[in-house]
Write a structure and sequence with these properties.
The complex is a heterodimer of chains A (155) and B (698). Chain A is α+β, with helices and mostly antiparallel strands and 155 residues long. Chain A folds into 2 domains: 72 residues, Ubiquitin-like (UB roll) (Roll), CATH 3.10.20; 71 residues, DNA polymerase, domain 1 (Orthogonal Bundle). Chain A contains 6 helices and 5 strands. The model of chain B has no long low-confidence stretch (mean pLDDT 96). The chains are: A alpha+beta (155), B alpha+beta (698). Chains A and B meet through helix 3, helix 4, helix 5 and helix 6 of A and helix 1 and helix 15 of B.
Chain lengths: 155, 698
Amino acid sequence: MKISFILNKKNVEVDVSPSMRLLDVVRDVLGLTGTKEGCGEGECGACTVLVNDEPYNSCLTPIINVANKEVMTIEGFRETKSYRIIADAFASQGGSQCGFCTPGMILATYAVLKKNPHPSEEEARLALSGNLCRCTGYQAIVDAVMLAAKKGIEL
Amino acid sequence: MIHQYKDSVKKVDNEEKMSGMAIFTGDIKMDDAYFAIPVRSSISYGKLLKINVPNLPKDYSFISAKDIPGENVCNIIASDWPVFADKEVHYKGETIGIIVGPNKEKCLELAALVECEHKEFEPVFEMVNSYVHKEFKKGNPDKVFANAKKTFSESFSTGYQEQIYLEPQAMLMYLDGEKITIKASMQCPFYIKKAVVRVLNCSEDKVRVIQPAVGGAFGGKEHYPSLMAAQLAIAIVKIKKPLKMIFDRKEDITFTTKRHPSKTEITAYLDEKDNILGVKIHVGIDGGAYVGCSMVVLSRALIACNNTYTFENVHVIGDAYCTNKVPSAAFRGFGSPQSIFAMELFINHLADFLHVKPLDLRNKYLVKTGDITPTNGIYRDPIILKELMDKAMEMSDYKRKLAEYSKPGSNRGIGMSTFLHGCGFTGSGESTIINAQLKIKKDKNDIVTFYTSQVDFGQGNRTTLKRIVVDTLGIPEDHVIYDAPDTDITLSTGPTAASRTIIIVGGLAAKAARHLKEIWKDGEEQEIVEPYVGPDFIKWDEDTMQGDAYPGYAWGVNVVEVSFDPLTYEVNIEGCWSTYDVGHAIDERILMGQADGGLAQALGWAYLEKEEAENGMFKQKTLSDYVIPTMVDLPKMETALIDNPFPYGAFGAKGAGELTFAGGAPAFAIALEQAIKHKVHKIPATPEYIMEILENED
């Protein structure tokens, strides 16, 4: 089935089963490997992408669900000014260790700050609790989110 | 508060990891690669009589023990784990063979059709059959214990822990001409190479291992990738097609190696004035079906079992037990967190038994510089444990809270642990087994390149090792090249394990760079191969477990505060404060990442992460039922480092990676005891366990 959507600000059309996971479409069909599979069941958030600026677990999203919608993966987001602000905050606080959760974590951070530009630390933790990290103990990530909020992302 | 870290540099892999450009094994494009799907044993223990393989379509093969050209042994430390089960199977899930072919779904379908005929034996799941036994003594325990006036005994247990590196096990193998080339999520490229050479009985130059980005490891990728590589290598010489074996989370949780469950029994022998004459300790660990590296895990558990205390008379006994379950193997701490957990709780409980304050009892026996270790070595480092404790107590407002929370009606608790970690391989292993060699060279343009086999799976060592060389040479950062390991280019500087990367390899890199600096001639090609030479005081006898076990120890203190909900039996962690002596921290920000990350894993092990085996199979198989801490499960963590430069490491650094795991569980459990006003003897302390304690003792 032919399905069209906007990926990283460009129109794309794929010819796949409508139930194919968005994760597999971006990674295997379109070759964008920045989106990671950590669990395949929506628990870890490594596969987070933005759909109309909302964070989605792409491993739980059938491709048909994003037909005609705007999908942003890390490959598109890294071209934005908001990415630079968030990535610099992660770098200065040590928010990325092995890096496997990081693209998803950065996209989730953007989605959190877009909704709530100045979260308390507690609000930030709650909003990002769907993204697991096994390396950092989260403190550096929370510090990075707070720093990005202070600098202000481009909304 | 936004941190301004001292002495921290930009991590070399920051940008590639944040932007999604870092290439992990599963990201490598290789469309013609065949899939390799394991066929696993459905029984826990039995004789393998016959394997019935269905008719396989063209391009599909079944690879098993009969295809092995070399030894059917996975080269781990012990040589008892077969690459493919052959005559017998010893655990449910053991690999009988692999189906390889171009379509993954078809491979899965065919793998499910392979059937085995068995003669089943009665499996053993409990810790009863010892396959490794160790014992050592300090002082004269037999005589002294016989004259004791009182004794106090307790037993403690800890559970399995899953690795949950965010990237599951993954391996890609292809032929580059005649050469078997491997890219995998790994910790130890040379371990993989040796495993392939042994199973194929081929020459070393036929195998090349290249490290892509690695999404976390923690010990779980120290040995298991060797098994995968050996299995794929047998297939690749037969079918000559690129192969990939990428586990999903369920397969990773169910069949890869885990932290050893443990049971520790401690008896203290006391005189008439309640002085501790000595302790007798038995540590048992569940090694699973094969020894693998369990004898070394057991060694570390035993050497650490007195933790930060000096007792004059010590009798230490240890057993690793064979059970018909997935083998246990390396995981951050490597056995010592289990025995440290037991000793920290024991010393607190003993204080209660003797009606003295736990802090007073601990201080009385706290290790001092020059004390004799349990293996009759010497604690040589200047030991600053008291300073570490004072600082942690000040940061956490420990004394006030301790008093306040002991009042009736309080559902809060605060607990403190002290702990140590021996850095580097146990005993003389660095000089006798590893023999690291580090190559550093300079080209005509004075660009320096150096090579190690250390893998950066998040710890930041690509940044720190490079920095050691840059700072030693005093040249600009962009004049030094340091890439990920490739066994065709680098010499082995040993595995990325045992908190040895900075203390041992970092020290070696600094030494090599110093030597290059001494002979430096502008515009000339120069090269140095620097061999590791250990400090000459390290004398160790592995058979008797006597001598200096480690070149140096790192030290730490954790304070954990909890609140307990008496209605739901749920526990919340309200605060964590830590102090560490890691020698001199080369990069404070990287160190803080180890501090927070290690403690988070330890707290998960202490109260959230429950992995139960039932009839030899794990009940929790996914991230929905095996729960690791999320951001809301952990509080703000505060950490302070106290500088105490170590003379043998690079720039005074000791090891840090595993140390930060050692104290979280006991600090948590001691805090929990205060909150629930009952003793804890087991982790994970889930609400169900807490309910059991409260109902049984009330």
